[in-house]
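Dissemination and training. As part of the outreach component of the grant, students in the summer workshop were shown how a complex can be specified as a set of sequence lines and then modelled as a single object. The example used during the hands-on session is reproduced here so that future cohorts can follow it. Participants entered these lines:
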Amino acid sequence: MGQASIGDILKEKEKEQMRNLVATQKKIIELKAGEKIDAFYLIKSFDVKKTTAGKQYIDINLVDKSGEINAKIWEYSKETDNLVSESSIVKVRGEVLEWNGTKQLKINKIRAKLPTETLKISELIPSAPVESSEMLQTIKMYVEKIEDVQIKLLVNNILDKYNTKLLYYPAAKKNHHSYMGGLLYHSMRMLQSGEKLGQIYKFLNMDYIFAGVILHDVCKILEMDSDEYGVVSDYTMEGKLLGHIIQGIKEIEIEGEKISIDREKSVILQHMVLSHHYEPEFGSPKKPMTPEAEILHFLDVIDARMFDFEHALQGVEPGSFTDKIWLLDNRNLYKQ
Amino acid sequence: MGQASIGDILKEKEKEQMRNLVATQKKIIELKAGEKIDAFYLIKSFDVKKTTAGKQYIDINLVDKSGEINAKIWEYSKETDNLVSESSIVKVRGEVLEWNGTKQLKINKIRAKLPTETLKISELIPSAPVESSEMLQTIKMYVEKIEDVQIKLLVNNILDKYNTKLLYYPAAKKNHHSYMGGLLYHSMRMLQSGEKLGQIYKFLNMDYIFAGVILHDVCKILEMDSDEYGVVSDYTMEGKLLGHIIQGIKEIEIEGEKISIDREKSVILQHMVLSHHYEPEFGSPKKPMTPEAEILHFLDVIDARMFDFEHALQGVEPGSFTDKIWLLDNRNLYKQ
Amino acid sequence: MGQASIGDILKEKEKEQMRNLVATQKKIIELKAGEKIDAFYLIKSFDVKKTTAGKQYIDINLVDKSGEINAKIWEYSKETDNLVSESSIVKVRGEVLEWNGTKQLKINKIRAKLPTETLKISELIPSAPVESSEMLQTIKMYVEKIEDVQIKLLVNNILDKYNTKLLYYPAAKKNHHSYMGGLLYHSMRMLQSGEKLGQIYKFLNMDYIFAGVILHDVCKILEMDSDEYGVVSDYTMEGKLLGHIIQGIKEIEIEGEKISIDREKSVILQHMVLSHHYEPEFGSPKKPMTPEAEILHFLDVIDARMFDFEHALQGVEPGSFTDKIWLLDNRNLYKQ
Amino acid sequence: MGQASIGDILKEKEKEQMRNLVATQKKIIELKAGEKIDAFYLIKSFDVKKTTAGKQYIDINLVDKSGEINAKIWEYSKETDNLVSESSIVKVRGEVLEWNGTKQLKINKIRAKLPTETLKISELIPSAPVESSEMLQTIKMYVEKIEDVQIKLLVNNILDKYNTKLLYYPAAKKNHHSYMGGLLYHSMRMLQSGEKLGQIYKFLNMDYIFAGVILHDVCKILEMDSDEYGVVSDYTMEGKLLGHIIQGIKEIEIEGEKISIDREKSVILQHMVLSHHYEPEFGSPKKPMTPEAEILHFLDVIDARMFDFEHALQGVEPGSFTDKIWLLDNRNLYKQ
Amino acid sequence: MGQASIGDILKEKEKEQMRNLVATQKKIIELKAGEKIDAFYLIKSFDVKKTTAGKQYIDINLVDKSGEINAKIWEYSKETDNLVSESSIVKVRGEVLEWNGTKQLKINKIRAKLPTETLKISELIPSAPVESSEMLQTIKMYVEKIEDVQIKLLVNNILDKYNTKLLYYPAAKKNHHSYMGGLLYHSMRMLQSGEKLGQIYKFLNMDYIFAGVILHDVCKILEMDSDEYGVVSDYTMEGKLLGHIIQGIKEIEIEGEKISIDREKSVILQHMVLSHHYEPEFGSPKKPMTPEAEILHFLDVIDARMFDFEHALQGVEPGSFTDKIWLLDNRNLYKQ
Amino acid sequence: MGQASIGDILKEKEKEQMRNLVATQKKIIELKAGEKIDAFYLIKSFDVKKTTAGKQYIDINLVDKSGEINAKIWEYSKETDNLVSESSIVKVRGEVLEWNGTKQLKINKIRAKLPTETLKISELIPSAPVESSEMLQTIKMYVEKIEDVQIKLLVNNILDKYNTKLLYYPAAKKNHHSYMGGLLYHSMRMLQSGEKLGQIYKFLNMDYIFAGVILHDVCKILEMDSDEYGVVSDYTMEGKLLGHIIQGIKEIEIEGEKISIDREKSVILQHMVLSHHYEPEFGSPKKPMTPEAEILHFLDVIDARMFDFEHALQGVEPGSFTDKIWLLDNRNLYKQ
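and obtained this result:
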């Protein structure tokens, strides 16, 4: 409605240019042994190593949105070494090899992204399939559905407190939803499933389900240190010594007291967080004692499993099996 | 639309009369110690016993839709003995006592239901909250949603085969859904939940989910002997030696072969039945290897747990706990 | 040093009178089948029941410091019924019987304690072998040994907060140290042992050991409802839904923040409380990660086990075994 | 009886020639580090790889009847590459090295077997110590001992159905009896042991024992894909999703129905197959409920263990221990 | 061969008289509710009890070779009380009742066995189906088969040492072979099975198998206190604190040293005893490391299980199931 | 007191010279990547290996008192090869590298220790922080505290028997206290802790505690083969087949009989040894049945854990975590 500004036009041009770049480059997940490639990737980490014969080479882990691949630059030079740095974008030319069933990239040429090439880091970073801001809005819509004013206020306050970090935090260091925005995506899908199941099991108190889902993992933000691309370098000191379940309980206790929430409501929410891993050996010393705590556990595990199944079956030929998947008790999944 | 027939009118009168009868009588689950009662119940089982002092008395288990209570007739007489028989309806007058926290009925007067009293056995039998015929119709509606014609035909054939028994079979001998129509009710709610979750996890193949839900427990009909009131006297010989999972697999294999179903489809459905208990120690020697098999397990366990939670919390005062519930790992549930 | 006051003299007289009373009465733990008794006991609980033949009788549980015995008044009368009430002292005359290896008291005569009889409830209540005030003083002496001023202040504040209740709270509802003052006694002995082991393992930080011991179970006061005689009627709502470990962690977090304790110190103390049960299935989702947390666990379990062993072997003949002790994995202990 | 035919004579000559060949070559299991060798082996699998320095070499797994060894051809050439192919026999000259306790063959020279060299693949393939045809005959002799005509017919029909494959199928992909004819050998020895134990425990029904042994593993033929040398490339789709136990049960059900076997007999045999792994976590959701099912389990496990023990102790010096054996819970076996 | 002596004739007469007595009396295992009986039984234990109404009665446990039944004498009298004593034979007249599925004998008349009635205690005592002396001879025959003179001497010495007790010791306090001569019977059948399996698995060293079987349980004689009727009153002090496995090891060590047995042989035999329960939680801290130790375990468990199965299925109707059997993990066995 | 002898003076000079040597060399545990070193170490083991490119090199494991490091000599020569031998001291010059987080030494120069360099093997060997003779004396002082003369004699006899070996035996092949004198050090600290706890739990019999501690692991001397530097090459044959617990029991039995100790005392001590690992899966088929056996277990586990914690936290920066420690269930320890 009305004319596009110069800025808009430029931005649009940039987007197009980027789309072209991306179009000509192969997704890491789709690389096949024997293929030659010429593409932009992000350096996740690297190391200068030596062969057993004492020759130096550079070992790099490259990522794009689709996945990760290990690469080698066998011809070491000081200039190449200087060029390689963490979280920088490079253009690489090389060949895909296979080593004991694992793909590896032999890099023949590497150069830094030129300033004129408009690809941004965020475009190569693995992230949730929905925009973070959109997900956060969806989650806030569910908060609006909470009828109890105290619970609604508590949830809103905690969301506001972690507002910025929520936009990029993953749901885990490794495994399911360990990408930018993963925590939001995981929570959003659980809210959606929870709402649906509430239509079948009508005796459930939806206030607790919505609040419980949003609060159950929120203290992963305190448990792990993530950069703004959703990459977790490590757990925090408090995360290792206590863990996000305990941290979440304290969060509810303290934030609840600030708004003088009814003690019963606070304790029930804390109990939901405490029991949502269900088994002591997975971190829950108490089993769910309310139906909402019980269902919270299942929403959580279903979303994690569906993530794992969908992810593992990607790119598998119909009628064949995946390799053994450690995360899923070494099952071989079947793609029908 | 048009006139009611005489038959309709009579039926309506009977219904009203029955409603009155029921209105004046206390539900077993609501009986309180100290109360005098005067009501119709169904005799589930009885025994003539002796006190340690050698005096004869009659020990009866009475049920209605809401539950079960043990009763005693301390004054034995030959006439009373003759009057008491299994699955007959009696009117009892007496007093509710409490014995180590368990309620017991001391019967002072007992008589048979008069032919003029129109209460029917089915009205006292615990059963699913939805009419069996209605549930069966709902289930058939889901069959209609199956797109693969072979799978649809297979499911239809098996449903037709067990048509009559499905109308009254419980889902278990004891525990969750162990009442008339329980098998249908359990399956129906799982179909409804499965459909909902399919809206979130869109990569799921709904044909397998609908078929898997309907077939997962259907051979409980072969595993247990139930009378037409949904009361299971015992497991069958084949039920004990093999179990409904194995029986269900054979059913799919054989009925599938009859319609020359594609081998892959048959095997996938058999695998879903095989893996739906998830853990070897609960009867599943294989874990789910397809996402639909995985979700089937969760649909099953969620429906069972929601049944148990709802049931256990019935009649509990808000703000208090239930006793330890053996079925739920001795948890005390909290009623908020 | 100086003259005794009149009050002192009277108090002394009372004490003597009481000693005489106690002298003439048998300790419950020493009652033997066949014996006639005539003694004061405390009514812990009672119930009016009926024999299978319908005759009313009164079923009473009597206690003294040494133990508990079940008693029956077979001849029911309204007056007797009125006389019997919880937590009252009665004088009973009767005979000790044995029923399947369990002792039982047949009461022939029962009457209320006369006002002139000076026996007090506290003298019949099972309690720790050291005076509560003395134990509290000992514990405070250990607080004085804490060198870190923040930790010392934190511990002092929490002790002050629960000052009164500490004087009578037991360490458990059942099992080890489940008597008046049990919590203090358990903590005191752990402090003493901890101090000793610190002399061997010199790299241990005694501040954390002393603080950890005092705080590890202090929130049992919030987990259970105890009367002033150390008898726990039930767990609290928060106790059931969260448990004393979680409650203790929150206590340290909140009280620590109040005095702006260094975050590291607060988290380490919380971790000690979190990990002191050692195994997830016993309530600790994290294992000890500091040597002080590790040793805390062993101080706790050693004190509990020594209590159980000492208690179980009381009154056992040298050269013989106890019955199977459920608490100790059904071991039969040997008395050398 | 009469003269040898020309054919017989030639065959005899061939055999002698082969015996000479074999005589001059070392068994793989007996190779020692430092030894030079010049011998025929079968190529089980191979791969062209690169050293970390980028040099190509050929990695080969060689087998003979006695075992398997990894070999390297460090000097890559196109001709050598062409010569190397799976399941072909080659003559290799080289040296045995040792690498972290594992033997390895450094190949200096390699050539294809000449047509004039009469060694056959089957002569290098690991296989059962008894001829397959002889074992099958022994098994059929046991079928003859079955008195119940229905059970005998059922077993005969199933044996006939898998006749050809039985001659070469192994009993497993890896581990015990994973060689040509292993399935027959395992079954035969179990029949022999079963017969013996039946002489001690006379109440056992030998019909079920003989039939149960023959049927217990027969569907490994459907579970795994084996070539005619008893080498299993993979499990089948149905094998992975259901497993040989479930497949065996269906086999009995269907083949039983074809001959209208008494339902009880069919179900008992199915139960034997279902329960023969004994523990749920090993694939048996039901434990044996008949003495014959119980004994079947022990016949199975004893034969597997005796195989493992005999195999592991081969070549061990008396008075010394084997390495840790993963298959046997990391035991070190002792050779007396 | 030659004339019978007077003594022989008398003995023969006694035997006949006894046979008559036994013929006219019902076996306890065959008693049915409602039946009147008049028979000799052995008093295993008794107690004078009171009804809840305070009336005295005598509670008796009666046994014969076939089993055990609880009986009541409701009419207490001093004379009856005097007549009743442990391990005495009485003649009882009464009626078989059923109480919650358990049979009970209501005794109307009871008298002591007259001296002229020749029934002996041993004739009513449950015992192995083979004469003890005959079993001992069989076992000694197996000792003769041991080729190693040191091992043979060791086994002979230990057998001689426990000669007398072996004739009546049961193999257990409860459970399998817990009757007179049970230890011999259990060992004898294991020897027979071991010999048979040695014919299949020819690499086994039969010396160790025969010696291992004989020694594996022999120190149950030191672990339990049994009277000469094979009734175990209790475990010994050393039995409780160490157990028959440890006791057996020490026995072999010490007796072996006395005859200067080769150290290796002694240690291997000790290892067999140590590992024969196979699992740590059943008392074996080491798993079998020789094939003979491995097979010893299976001989042991097979004989125990066959005993349990045979025993449990006794008297069960073909086509029906037993009740749940605790000893066999609550299985319901099926009688085909 | 008086003049130093010439011998003393020389010895003193040697000591000083050695101290200088040691002063100029880096402790292995303190080596940092990038550092150049020039120091004496002991060769623990070595191997001549080949790079994948076929070049020979020497792989050496070097130790000093502080720890162990892997080293490589890339330039192989026959002379170097001759120089390198196990348990010899060498002077090495080289550079510390890091390889996947593990330190490695690249050796540029290596030579044998000159005879004039007075460093002794024992000065480089990892060993307990207290002199063995001093520790043995401390232990004997505890024996003196045993009041029961029989128990004291037994302990003294066993100590005397293993006198020499005790001076250097480690407490384990790997893990806690696996260094020269480790067995003495472990026992000594347990005695000290036991004495302390006996001051709190006064009902404990200190005779059994002192004797139990000294005897609990003494047969590790029979279970493992250690050289005089406390390096265990392997377990003994009897150690593998029976283990030090069983060996210790036999030791007490036999040595006890020699001095005619009261049977009860011997059995109680054997029970303490048997039960001190507490759990069947760790080698104790019986759980402690006396308070002294119970406490013995805790003394043992506390000393092992304190060793592991102290050791693991050595050199860790305050405020950071260790890597995952396999021995401690993969915990990351925190250094406050």
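The domain at 132-313 of chain F is CATH 1.10.3210 (Hypothetical protein af1432). Students were then asked to discuss how this feature might be tested experimentally.
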